[in-house]
Amino acid sequence: MNFGRNILLAYVMASLASPLLHAADPAAAIEDNRLYDLYTQNEVPAPVTLMPRAGVPDEDVYQYRAAAPQETVTEEGATRYLETDFLLKRGINTYGWIDIGIGANDWGADWNGPVTFNDRAWQGQMNQLYLVNERILNDDSFSWGGRIDLLYGTDFLYTVAAGLDAYRTYPDPIGLSGPRWASSRYYGLAMPQLYGEFGSQELNVKFGHFYTLIGYEVVPAIGNFFYTHAYTMQYGEPFTHTGVLGTWVPNDQLTIIGGITNGSDNWDNGLETGRTIANQNYANYNSNASFLGAITFSSSDGTQALTLANSSGNELAAESFVNPNTAYVGNRTVTSLVYSNEFTNKLTYVYQSDFGYQAYAGGDSPIYYETQGQQPGSAYWYGVNQYVFYNFTDYLIGGLRLEWFRDNNGTKVQYGLRNGSPELGNFAGNFWAMTWGLNYLVGNNLIIRPELRYDWFSQDVGNAAQGVGLPFGRLAGGLGTQSDQFYGGCDVVWQF
What pLDDT does 443 receive? Predict the structure, then answer.
C-alpha cells in the first residue's frame, strides 16, 4: 500500500473545509474549544489507561497516555501562546513544547548503553522542539479534522519513518542512509504525524500517518512521566504507522479502534528494498499490509481500565547471510496489554505486558536463532512493566517503574543507533530496570523531571545468538564490559 502521496493533499483539504463547515454557526466553533475542559469537568468518564491530561481533548488523549494524573495545579491546562482568536474560531489548535535534559552513567562511558532517546552521557540534549497543528472533531456531530506534528531535536532519529523522512533502500540512491532531514550529527527533523479525519468523537475514520496504539509509553515528552523510556517501548514496539483507522465509542466503558496500515515505522515505502525477496514461497511475501487495532474496557467510575492492542503483518525480517542482494520477509506480530487502576485520588497503578514475534528472523541460517521450544528461524521478545504514581502534593508527583524485557534471540536490543555511537547488538537474555522519578509542576506550563535508574542484564549462556560483549560500561576492544549500570538524569519540559 502507498498512502504517503495523498496524505498532504487530504490534510490540506480537511483544513480548508474546517472553516466552511463552521461558517453557518460561528458560535458552534467557539463551543468546540470547551473540549479542553472535558476531563476536568468530568463530562465524560475516560479510561484511566489513557491517562487523561487537563486541556487535552478526548480523541487526543491516547497520544499522551503514559503521563501520571495531575492535580489542581494543571486543571486549567497549559497556557497556549501560539493560539489566536482567528484559529480558535475555526476550531484549529496550535501548540507545542520544548524538552531539554542531561543524563549520565556511573561508568564514565560516553554513551548510556541501550538507553536510546537520551543516549549521550554528560552532554546536554534538546530532545524535542515539538509543534502541533490540529483541528479537533466535534463531540457528537459530523465534522472534518486533521493534525500535523513536527519534531526537531535529538529524538528525531527514533521517530523518522521509511519513505518521506528516512531512507530505507538498497543500494542507497544518492549515497546516503537514514534520516533525510538531519541538520547535524545529532539533530534533525521528523514528521511523526500527518493525518486527516472525519466523523465525531464517538465514530470517526482517520487516514494518514499517526502514532501507534501499541504499548503504554509514547514519543511526545508531555505524554510520559519519566525522562527515559522502558525497553518495551524502545525496542519492542512500533512508533508510527501509515494507513486508515476507524474508532467507535459506543459508550463510556468501551472504545474499539481498528484498521489497515502499511507496517511499522513506514511512511510510504513498501517491502521493496532493491533486494530480491529470497523466501517467495511465504504467504503474501510481496505485501506489507498490516492490521492495527485496540479495544479498551473501563469501569463505570473511570478508575480502572484494560486495553488490548495488536499489530500484525509482514515486515522485512533479515538480510541473507549468503547473498547480500537478497533478503527475507516474515510476519511480525506485537501484542500489548495495559491495565490501570486509580486506587485513590493520589495513588495510581499501571501494568503493561508485551509479546513480539518475527518469522524468518534467521533468514537462511534459521538454526542461528533456535532455542529450546521455539520455532527454528523465528525470534521472540517479551516485556512486563509496572508503574506506581503518587501525588505528594498538587505540585509534586512521585513515580516508580519496574521492568523486565527478554530479548529471546538477541534481535532487538542494541547498544546504540545514533551516528557515531558503538553499534553493538545481539544481547540475547534478560534486561531488568528500576527507575525512580519526580515530576515537579511549576505553574501550568513547566515540568521538571529528575530521575535515577538502575539497569542490569543477564546473558543467555549457550544461546547460539547470545551476542558479543555486554551492553553497559566503557568499551574495551569495541565491546561493552559491564552487565549493569546506574543512570541519573533530569529534563525540563516547557509547554507553549
Answer: 85
Q: How far apart are CA 61 and CA 271, in angstroms?
A: 32
Q: Is the dihedral of CA 33, 34, 37, 39 positive or negative?
A: negative
Is it the case that residue 441 has pLDDT exceeding 60?
yes
Distance CA 350, CA 464 (A): 35
CATH number of the domain that 137 lies in? 2.40.160.10
pTM score, two decimals? 0.85
The distance in angstroms from the start CA to the end CA of the chain is: 37
* Distance (Å, whole) CA 450 – CA 487: 11
CA distance 428 to 474: 20
CA distance readout (Å), 166 to 34, 187, 209, 446, 457:
38, 14, 14, 32, 32
CA 109 from centre of chain:
27
* Grid cell of 456 as nine digits: 542490569
Residue 153 predicted with pLDDT over 50: yes
**203 is written with which cell numbers?**
465514530
Question: Distance between CA 446 and CA 199 in Å, rounded?
Answer: 34
**By residue range, what is the domain housing residue 171?**
4-495
The DSSP letter of residue 68 is P
Contact in structure between 471 and 422 (CB atoms under 8 Å): no
Amino acid identity of residue 391, one-letter, is N
DSSP 120: B
Pull the grid cell for residue 236.
519492542
Mean pLDDT of the region 283-312: 92
Q: Are the C-beta atoms of 349 and 313 separated by less than 8 Å?
A: no
Number of domains within the chain: 1
Distance between CA atoms of residues 199 and 302, nearest Å: 25
Question: CA dist 37 to 53, 57, 65, 342, 352, Å?
Answer: 10, 8, 17, 20, 28
Could you tell me the three cell numbers for 284? Answer: 503474501
Mean pLDDT is lowest, of 241-255, 437-451, 455-469, for 455-469
